[in-house]
Amino acid sequence: MLASIHSATLQGIVAAPVQVEVNSGESGDPRLVLVGLPDAAVKESEDRVHSALSNSGFAMPETRTTINLAPADIRKEGPLYDLPIALGILLSTGQLTPVLNPADYLVAGELGLSGITRPIRGALAIAQLARKLGKTGLLLPPRSAEEAALVEGIAVYRVESLDQAHRFLSGTLALAPLRGDRHFLRKSDSALSGDFSEIKGQHALRRAVEVAVAGNHNLLMIGPPGSGKSMIAKRIPTIMPEPTLDESLEILSIHSAAGRTISGEAPWCERPFRSPHHTISDVGLLGGGTMPGPGEISLAHHGVLFLDELPEFKRSALEVLRQPLEDGEVTISRSAGKVTLPCAFMLTAAMNPCPCGYLGDPQHECRCSPIQIQRYRSRISGPLLDRIDIHIDAPTLSIRELRTESASESSVAMRERIQAARTRQHTRFAATRTTSNARMTHTQIRQFCRIDSTLGDLLQQAMEQLSLSARAYDRILKVTRTIADLAGSEHIEPPHLLEAIQYRSLDRKLFY
To answer: Start and end of every Mg chelatase-related protein C-terminal domain (predicted)?
Structure first.
């Protein structure tokens, strides 16, 4: 007897439909034959399903049974097919007489040996697929169902076991669909780590960070050890505007596809902050694998990617950032397929001025030779540096600054100014797909960053003296527009341009 259950497979962060076909009663030795490009985890489902059926009071087929995961040309991975395979076996062997039409539901879930269900990756993407396909509902394990219920327009049912799913489809158990509870998508101050009021001194650096966040600009901090670079970077999410509902769902979708929502390590209410170690591989940073999945740059989508000790990262790993920084997305091609992943993140990087870290520090002597310094700094290519809008020094704090008892400005006050600047940008770009000044196109730069001849001459002089590229020219104008937004000015004034130019002054120090 042939039975069919509808399920899904993950391709990057989106789901594609999979039909689980089960045909029992075939001639031959009693065994399960699983086809349709399954990976090792899918192949092992036979043993999990066998135990789950037995411990739930059901019987395995006594004949040869073929299970096909269609379409057969797409590789299937993960344990999410356990539940649909088990239900397909029950249907094909007559142990399940459905009152509800199984074709109206999308089913996914891992089974424990006792028959309980366990959460799966990509529940949000599967719910979006079910809605797109016009399904009546979606059967998922409890934790995954709560996540999927955030998608409007689809009924999501939480099934805690194989037996419960069987009784629901057979009409002997009524389940109420979950209602999406979005309370955990709201930012909570208690969930944030630290506050800018804890930062001593570093007024110029704090200002540069505020400008960077206001326009979503990439930021590079250069200073000796102990100057507070990492401490400040970790507090950047506390001054970023709260993500919109759409942004929250995008963030959650990526982290769900990466499996972070299963382990509970993904924050529900914050913009992501990712800080990979400098030993990370190109694939770990960019994304990929046999079945392409999100890397660190995608996990930082709508948030912050912090690269501490920037020159210590492999050159190849840094160079793969160039295209994603420009486009806000990355396309990964593998033998199993090609996926495009979003990665609109704010790059925040920190580095020492030299190998020993004390070049220019009045309290310590630098022991590095000019050749060592040049070799150290040249690990960052000019094209990558061009894509970092703001470069700022982080000088060593004096003992007097460290001892001060007066609190600095809080994250809340900084966030209010940043939110006002972001609101001006949203109004300006309301009719376009641009979301911030840092994402302005060349045409938008010419439209919204107009400068008169006097300011143009000033900018040309700075470009020539610092030997900046054409890309750096646009970066300066973008930062200038953000500074003007923070000042509440519709027009770019000389102080705005001068401040933006000083944020590129490190180009000459690093490379010329």
So the answer is: 409-504
Cα atoms in the 13 Å half-sphere on the side-chain side of 223:
22
CATH class, domain 2-170, is alpha beta
SS3 for 5? strand
> What's the Cα-to-Cα distance from 427 to each of 423, 432, 435, 485, rounded to whole Å?
6, 10, 10, 12
Neighbours of 181 (CB within 10 A): 10
Cis peptide upstream of residue 71 (ω within 30 degrees of 0): yes
What would the pLDDT profile of 199-238 be if each residue is shown by its tens digit? 888 889 999 999 999 999 999 999 999 888 999 999 999 9
CATH code reported for the domain at 189-511:
3.40.50.300
* Residues in the chain, overall count: 512
Helix (H) or strand (E) holding 196: none
Nearest to 508 by CA among 456, 465, 459: 465
Instruction: Give the predicted TM-score (pTM) of the model.
Output: 0.87
Phi-psi region of 445 (alpha: psi -120 to 50; beta: other; left: phi over 0): alpha
DSSP string, 156-185: EEE--BHHHHHHHHHTSS--PPPPP--GGG
pLDDT in tens, 60-76: 998 999 999 999 988 89
**What mean pLDDT is predicted for residues 71-92?**
93
Tokens encoding 227: 């100057």
Q: Where in the chain are the domains?
A: 2-170, 189-511
Residue 65 CA: distances (Å) to CA of 12, 50, 267: 31, 13, 43
Give the C-alpha separation, 260 to 293, whole Å. 12
What phi and psi values does residue 53 have, to the nearest 5 degrees? -65, -45
Q: For residues 238 and 347, what is the distance between their CA atoms, to the nearest angstrom?
A: 16
The single residue listed with the structure tokens 């104008």 is 477
Look up tokens 């295209």; give the residue: 323
DSSP letters for 378-404: TTS-HHHHHT--EEEE-PPPPHHHHH-
Radius of gyration of the chain (CA): 27
Q: Rounded to whole angstroms, how far apart are CA atoms 69 and 336?
A: 16
